[in-house]
Write a structure and sequence with these properties.
- This protein is α/β, with parallel strands linked by helices and 226 residues long.
- The chain has a single domain (43-224), classed as 3-Layer(aba) Sandwich (Rossmann fold).
- It has helices spanning 36-46, 69-81, 97-100, 105-108, 116-122, 172-181, 195-203; strands spanning 10-13, 19-23, 28-29, 57-63, 84-90, 129-132, 135-140, 153-158, 182-190, 207-212, 219-224.
- The strands form two sheets. An eight-stranded mixed beta sheet has the order 6-7-5-4-8-9-11-10.
- Strand 2 and strand 3 (28-29) form a beta hairpin.
- The longest helix has 13 residues, at 69-81.
- The model has no long low-confidence stretch (mean pLDDT 95).
- It binds S-adenosylmethionine.
Length: 226
């Protein structure tokens, strides 16, 4: 089980040069050590967001705001597709200023204003905040096990810590709750390809496919509400 005591985090560089956080006591990373940006791009943007590139408006739920990298990449890609985004993200253990101020994503992804990630981290909790006129961010300081959201979603980024470290977050019950919040045709993506996770998703009602994972990982899962 993860407790506050475990969240002594350190910032490290991954193989693509982008930062991630590690929790040494748990031997857990926020992203793949083969490349944080590379992994987020593959698992959440290419396998999820880009599948819905034709939608003019999307409602997205993220499990685990963490560094804000998925939010940032989604913002950037929504501009390429000219989409309106309502982005809701939940986080139980938010980063503190000293942590997110050190992240080097701005120097790698240089096509957006430098302060964008900071504005996302500094956005108040529980209050929809316009990052710009097309992108609204709602951050919820919540435990996934007590998820309370008002919206329904077209896309879910399931980015909790791994099922071996947090098995209570990858259960059939949790996936049933999320399934109930998704619109018909909505997609959920996650980096895990574990058999038990796939079975839990299927039992929750999803149609699940195994697809190619990011570098360093053979497979990942994509689930659809039909
Ligand atoms: C694998 S990290 C990914 C974070 C983020 N998507 C990113 O790109 O940095 C998992 C995140 O889930 C959060 N988390 C862990 N347990 C949680 C819980 N019970 N409810 C909500 N968030 C949780 C962690 O604090 C962490 O930020």
């Amino acid at each position: 089980m993860i407790t506050k005591k475990h969240l002594n985090r350190q910032i490290v560089k991954t193989d693509d040069g982008s930062h991630t956080l590690i929790i040494p006591e748990l031997n857990e990373h926020y992203h793949s050590i083969h490349g944080a940006i590379q992994e987020s791009m593959h698992v959440f943007i290419q396998a999820g967001f880009n599948q819905l590139a034709n939608a003019s408006k999307l409602s997205i739920l993220e499990i685990g705001f963490g560094t804000g990298l998925n939010t940032l990449l989604t913002f950037i890609h929504s501009k390429m597709n000219q989409q309106f985004i309502e982005y809701c993200t939940i986080e139980k253990y938010p980063l503190v200023n000293e942590e997110f101020m050190q992240l080097n994503y701005a120097s790698i992804l240089n096509d957006y204003p430098n302060d964008l990630l900071y504005r996302m981290h500094n956005a108040p909790w529980k209050k929809p905040t316009a990052i710009d006129s097309e992108f609204t961010l709602l951050k919820l300081h919540q435990d996934l096990l007590h998820l309370q959201v008002d919206n329904t979603f077209d896309l879910v980024y399931f980015d909790a810590f791994g099922p071996d470290k947090q098995p209570d977050l990858w259960t059939e019950d949790v996936f049933k709750t999320i399934y109930g919040l998704m619109n018909r045709g909505a997609i959920l993506t996650t980096y895990s390809a574990k058999g038990q996770v796939r079975r839990n998703m299927k039992n929750a009602g999803f149609k699940v496919e195994r697809i190619a994972g990011p570098p360093g990982k053979r497979e990942m899962l994509r689930a659809k509400k039909q």
